[in-house]
Automatic annotation (TrEMBL):
One Gene Ontology cellular component annotation held by this UniProt entry: plasma membrane
UniProt entry keywords in alphabetical sequence: Membrane, Signal, Transmembrane, Transmembrane helix
Keyword Ribosomal protein: no
An example Gene Ontology molecular-function term: signaling receptor activity
Database matches in Pfam families: TIR
Name the record gives this protein: TIR domain-containing protein
Major localisation: membrane
TIR domain boundaries: 139-278
UniProt keyword RNA-binding, yes or no: no
Top-level taxon in the UniProt lineage: Eukaryota
Length: 278
């Protein structure tokens, strides 16, 4: 096969030569004066030239042309790992970047879904159906205020006055509006159902001394619906954030959790309440 136009030996031909060598005891192949291919598509052929037990001429060093069209020799590629990296390294690098991109986007979508599930569902329903978002006029009360009886001053006085006088929204307070003859659980559920917004004032007392803490929080979770996805608003002490049930954060937007360090109705808190309650 010398002085021919052979560029490579196919896998089938290599297998035939290997069988002949085993059957005959020896086999010779002369490839000198051919311009072989040492491009990426013939890495297996280059490896075969180095490892085969078939006797080759020219000390197994043949003229070849690489993927860039440059003449070289097969013995240049004794370290096939370098050629493999040159041929496939960029492809695998790009593939790795694509996987990383898909991984990051996937985690971001999952994070957004977990944090804004109700809002996303609401937007989908609004887009594909005639779903109408509820308005404050659709409810009996403007704001249900959930608080602890041990710290009623901020919720029942300071906060209530701002909501009723400045925001012009009616409020429901358990100590003021819940009838003595009504069961507490039923009264809370009915009041939440009848309220446009549910405002939970979460401090240490609300978490540790309020017997109705978990019931109130979980009732608020169940009250969030696609036609009122921003229904629940929370004012919480920074130190008490970890005490809130995880399902609460899964159903309300992150922006509706107002974190504070001190119970002071300053301008920042007023603006946060105004944009979330109205």
């Amino acid at each position: 096969m010398r002085q021919n136009v052979v560029t490579a030996v196919s896998k089938r031909d290599r297998e035939i030569m290997a069988d002949n060598r085993e059957r005959l005891g020896s086999f010779q192949l002369f490839l000198a004066d051919n311009i072989l291919s040492c491009g990426c598509e013939h890495i297996n052929f280059l490896q075969w030239l180095q490892l085969t037990s078939v006797q080759l001429d020219n000390n197994r060093n043949f003229t070849c042309i690489n993927s860039e069209g440059v003449f070289t020799y097969t013995l240049v590629y004794l370290q096939l790992e370098d050629l493999w990296r040159q041929c496939w390294g960029r492809w695998f690098l790009n593939f790795s970047f694509i996987l990383l991109f898909v991984f990051v986007i996937g985690h971001l979508l999952v994070f957004l879904w977990v944090k804004n599930k109700t809002v996303i569902i609401s937007n989908v329903f609004q887009f594909f159906t005639n779903l109408r978002l509820k308005k404050v006029s659709d409810y009996r009360y403007g704001v249900f205020i959930g608080y602890c009886n041990f710290d009623y001053q901020f919720a029942c006085v300071t906060l209530r006055e701002y909501i009723e006088e400045k925001l012009k929204l009616t409020t429901f307070l358990q100590d003021r509006d819940l009838l003595p003859s009504s069961a507490v659980s039923e009264g809370i559920m009915e009041a939440m159902t009848s309220s446009y917004r549910i405002l939970l004032v979460v401090n240490e007392s609300f978490v540790k001394q309020n017997d109705w803490f978990l019931f109130t929080v979980r009732s608020a979770v169940y009250s969030v619906t696609p036609n009122n996805p921003f229904r629940v608003v929370i004012i919480v002490e920074e130190a008490q954030v970890k005490q809130l049930p995880t399902e609460l954060f899964n159903c309300i937007p992150e922006d509706n959790v107002i974190r504070i360090n001190e119970w002071l109705l300053d301008y920042k808190l007023k603006e946060s309440l105004r944009t979330r309650l109205q």
